[in-house]
Amino acid sequence: MPPDTSRPEETRAGGAAGGRATRRSMSWKAVAAKLDGEIAAGKYRETMRLPAETVLARALGISRHTLRRAIAALEVRGLLYCVPHKGVFLAPLRLSFPLGAKTRFADAVTPTGLIPSGQLISQQRCIPPPEIARQLRIAKRSEVIELQVVRAANGKPLSYATIWLPAERFGRIGDLFASVGELHEALILHGVPEFRRSELRVTARPASEVERRILGLEAGGFVLVVESTSRDPTGEPTHLSLFRFGAERVEITIEL
Amino acid sequence: MPPDTSRPEETRAGGAAGGRATRRSMSWKAVAAKLDGEIAAGKYRETMRLPAETVLARALGISRHTLRRAIAALEVRGLLYCVPHKGVFLAPLRLSFPLGAKTRFADAVTPTGLIPSGQLISQQRCIPPPEIARQLRIAKRSEVIELQVVRAANGKPLSYATIWLPAERFGRIGDLFASVGELHEALILHGVPEFRRSELRVTARPASEVERRILGLEAGGFVLVVESTSRDPTGEPTHLSLFRFGAERVEITIEL
DNA sequence: TTCTATTTGTGCGTATGTATT
DNA sequence: CAATACATACGCACAAATAGA
């Protein structure tokens, strides 16, 4: 992007950022701050393309170099993103998704005023991959219930989750989930009054075709993958869940 | 993908997966399990391209349809990834990066046998964006120290972090960091015996040009962004850090 | 540059075993 | 019992993108 420097930010403060104005035009920092303010004030809309660099630079009375330096700074902060030969776009607002030891999906979504919903896409009883069995601390060839759940806010799909539970203990979890529409409630009906996530593993990777279709992502989209193990009060693993979020739509917040 | 169903997995077990073998060829599940085992056993190497679908299907004695169904299942689990018209590749192993309330970078890397290093790229004193000031609970126009740090394992860049600290309290943090090479130590020398991360915010987005260059990512690469606020024992925010990881290289694990 | 071979993505038609109605 | 629905599996064919000559 900026061919004018090999460093991400300048090494020393210097410049004409805040001091006396000995130059007529703005420093790249002033430009970045100005654009930052305009974005915060809502001048540009979500995912909207900004004016072409030449146009915007002329409007601000600065060189294209300076503008590009400012844009690069905002891009690193995640406010803008650049698509080569197409333009500069405003990064989409992300739905903040709190994920703590006890968070339920509904708790995460309702504060935003959106209406949460959970739908069981499929359930099946099967022998899990060895890694899943290990994490659930069950025998290698014992069965699990595998649930596929899509959760949405205001009808727009937010996450696509696969959840594994020991079949011996949670034989009817699928039907219970289907009737109450919440994993938390279904587990209570199964005799687990409380459970806690004990560990989270977070990665990001390109979305598969299935994930793109379910989450409504376009080609080249990424998913944010959150895997977690939950345990009942005795420390026994109750279930393992693999959440996939459209990366550009959410921000996951974790309380420590 | 599989045009034979609108669902990601079949709803019921059914099929001829485990039962008596009345057919000669394997079910797609058996194929997935076989490939899973071969991958776990190390038959294919990291990021290696698998044989072409036609070749692999013939070798396994199944149709290309069945093979594709199995590949789709493994792709959703993150073991493989497909690049259109190029091939199917083994997903790269990820460096697990534990990020808890008190984790230090060195603690995260040393168990792997890799040699950690941290390099201060730049430091500067400046007025931060309003959002940063708010999170640090300092006056809107008071100064902060902004550090740019690249951390590497065995010389390969792992993370690129921007760290903001109140300038009034941590005026010499940059020089201290440069001499000891660890933020934790530098903060101790600044009179902060202990600090804890109180909250994490995790997102993923396309890497900017700067990030690609620093982290050595290729075009189209994604960064996993982890933002966290740390506080001293009195609850006063000490610093705010913005970590960027090459998404395909790491897995972040969080103890709750 | 154009041409070609390779490879994945997608669609259709058909057959079969299992489960439900 | 039969009729139906469905997941599964196979073969063939073509489109679209890529890589190399």
Could you describe the 3D structure shown?
The structure is a homodimer of 256-residue chains. Chain A is of the alpha+beta class. Helices cover 27% and strands 32% of the residues of chain A. Chain A folds into two domains: 10-90, Orthogonal Bundle (Arc Repressor Mutant, subunit A), CATH 1.10.10.10; 95-254, Chorismate lyase, CATH 3.40.1410. In chain A, the strands form three sheets. Chain A has a six-stranded antiparallel beta sheet with strand order 4-5-6-9-8-7, sandwiched between helices. The radius of gyration of chain A is 24 Å and the shape is elongated. The first copy, chain A, starts with 27 loop residues before the first helix and ends with a strand. At the A-B interface, helix 1, helix 3, strand 4, strand 7 and helix 8 of A face helix 1, helix 3, strand 4, strand 7 and helix 8 of B. The structure holds a DNA duplex (21 and 21 nucleotides).
